[in-house]
Amino acid sequence: MRDVECGKGSYYAPVREPFMPRDAHEMSEVEVRGRIITLAFDSDETLFIAFYRKLQQGIPEGTGIILRGSVVTNKRFEDGTPFDSLGKGTSDLDVTLVGKKVMEAWVSDGYYLPGLHTKPLCDEDPDIAPSLNPLRESLQQLIGRPVNIQATSSLVLYAREVLFGEAYHVVVEPGKDA
Prior knowledge:
By secondary structure, the protein is α+β, with helices and mostly antiparallel strands. 31% of the residues lie in helices and 19% in strands. The chain contains 6 helices and 8 strands, in the order E-E-H-H-E-H-E-H-E-E-H-E-H-E. A hairpin with a 3-residue loop joins strand 5 and strand 6 (117-118).
């Protein structure tokens, strides 16, 4: 495997099958990123970059972009089955946006915790953040799989990691005012 420069000083190393069963908490950031690119982007780093850049262009400046869920862990929360176990493109991509400004895109009843953590924008609830839904749909077309988007505060993201041990991958760091 060779490392290829990608983004802001990070590197991507393709992840081969032996890495897939490993717990994300035991993996380096490079390995987790490699897992994500392998699983959700068919090992195409260019597609991954196109995805997050398109997302970044459609959200307020300074908003963090986080990937969570089975693309990070390679296990569905509900039943422990691997990512895309029902076929290519069947698993969704869980995107969490970190920032106060982006939360303004959600309707008033679109929060689990008002002002701190939103419900997901998804195929089942496309009107929960109507201004972001066209972006979400274009991201789905780009990568050929469902995309769910939530917004949260840094506090909730931190609490989910510490209290519940939820693994996630930071694609774009939130700005200082997020």
